Amino acid sequence: MATLxxxxxxxxxxxxxxxxxxxxxxxxxxxxxxxxxxMWLPKLDYLxxxxxxxxxTSKSTLVRYRDFIDKYLPLHRALVIESLRLIFTLNSVQPxxxxxxxxxxxxxCVRELSISYYSLHYKSVALLPCSLYTCKSLVTLKLExxxxxxxxxxxxxxxxxxxxxxxxxxxxxxxSLKLLVSSCPVLExxxxxxxxxxxxxxxxxxxxxxxxxxxxxxxxWSSDGFLIDTPSLKYFKVVDWGDSISWLxxxxxxxxxxxxxGLDIEDILKSITTVKRLSLDTFFSFQEESVDSVGxxxxxxxxxxxxxxxxxxxxxxxxxxxxxxxxxxxxLHTDVYGTYGEYYEQGSIDQxxxxxxxxxxxxTFEFSGYIGTPxxxxxxxxxxxxxxxxxxxxxxxxxxxxxxxKEERKKPFVKAQRxxxxxxxxxxxxxxxxxxxxxxxxxxxxxxTFWFSFSSLCRFISEEADISLWLKNEKSTEMLLKSITTVKRLSxxxxxxxxxxxxxxxxxxFRQLENLKLYKCSENWxxxxxxxxxxSPNLQxxxxxxxxxxxxxxxxxxxxxxxxxGFVPKCLLNSLETFKFEGYNxxxxxxxxxxxxxxxxxxxxxxxxxxxx
Length: 613
Description:
Blueprint: H1 9-16, H2 21-26, E1 43-47, H3 48-51, H4 59-72, E2 83-88, H5 95-107, E3 112-117, E4 140-144, E5 149-150, E6 163-167, E7 170-171, H6 176-182, E8 189-195, E9 203-206, E10 212-218, E11 226-229, E12 235-240, E13 247-249, E14 257-262, H7 266-270, E15 277-282, E16 303-308, H8 314-322, E17 329-334, H9 356-360, E18 364-370, H10 374-386, E19 392-397, H11 398-403, E20 413-417, E21 429-434, H12 444-458, E22 464-469, H13 474-483, E23 489-494, E24 515-520, H14 525-534, E25 541-546, H15 570-574, E26 578-584, H16 589-601, E27 607-612
Parallel strand pairs: 1-2, 2-3, 3-4, 4-6, 5-7, 6-8, 8-10, 9-11, 10-12, 11-13, 12-14, 14-15, 15-16, 16-17, 17-18, 18-19, 19-21, 22-23, 23-24, 24-25, 25-26, 26-27
Antiparallel strand pairs: 20-21, 20-22
Helix pairs in contact: 12-13
């Protein structure tokens, strides 16, 4: 019988490389063969927070840990160290230890080097060896911690460095960052993060090869601003929630995607006009002509995501729509509670000037965080009135999702959604609103107007629909169903007046419907199901489920149930092949009556599954 000892040392080292370094070292006690195997590992991880347990953080333990690294790292036998991670957060090593250990890694042709050093115990900084800045093998360099001093010599040159991460480090002088970045001829990924004030003035990043750039500043950074010159950049993300500073960025002709988070974004927007995907997270400062007058055109923009946290966000969004003629997808998320300022209704949305993208290209609109403010209603009116090619609409209220499954709603609400299962599936519709004066209207003349717009949008839905309705208004249900009669796949979760035999009027026929999923949400649910079966002559698949979050209320009347009235839907006789009932309850008479009716008349079944709850 073969054992591990029969394997070659090379294969055993390969096996050990998949283990944490601490575990690999512990195998040295197994036998003489294993004693030094771990010293051939091409990857080493020294992470004191993981290697030293919380119960063993005594001074002597920390000293032994430091002494172990100091003794065995110079003796490591691997000719090439593929990866070395030195992560110290427990005051286990001293700042002066970092320099010789990094130098050893450089001498072993290290390809990936990560150094993270945080210490409140030592006041001195951790220096890096000069040889690090001329390492010919280094591909990835990650430095983290205020105690790490980046002191770049004039002779710096890193010919293979592609990935550089600098998180909260200290720079020796004004030119350190600029010199380091510009001396990496094949640099592709750059990440700079800062949590507090920096010890340098202007932040200068100049690179002709850089393709992805992540820049994050929290609190304050530098009053001298930023200079970004990266002509090959394809992805740019900036997080700047500090003091307002100046940006000087050259044109980025290759830029495809940008993610901008901050207060002052106008200067950045001017330099990223070639993007196809743009995400903005901003606290927009209202100035009546600050956005529209600039006229920044995004002629290639196809996907826009906007997250705002104050009123008058439409003053930013509408001009963006105006200058994005090819926009196809719009995601809007608001965290507005009407407490940050007055909404300027006059002149905020020019209803007479319709952006070209609404007429020609916008296919998907998702609005989350809706609470029914005047600005939100104005913008929705503007969109619903003017959009033409829309195929996907999603509007969700933060109140609904926060409380929907926590407690029964005291106020009824409407939700309708459709979710595509395949990329080429038709369109989706997702609506959430509250039945109150501050939200979308749901009664009277306003209701007719709203559902008219709603129905005009639903004409685009041709493949699949997922509809959830908790609004006790059969007219609204009927108008919605009339709008989606061409669907092939339909999911229905409806709470309705359980005393009504007909949930909707006769004459609504789903001739293309092949797959139906229905959730039991009300007593007499079988009335709705049998009615849908009657109006779906080509149905092939039926899934019946129990909604775990919605309890059925009301009284089931066997005499008025459609299951007991003798009518047999055409699909049961000719087309229905698959039936699944998940959550069957034999104690419920309605469940028993429907199954009896169904199996009595279903003639074409090939697959059946009934799961008792």
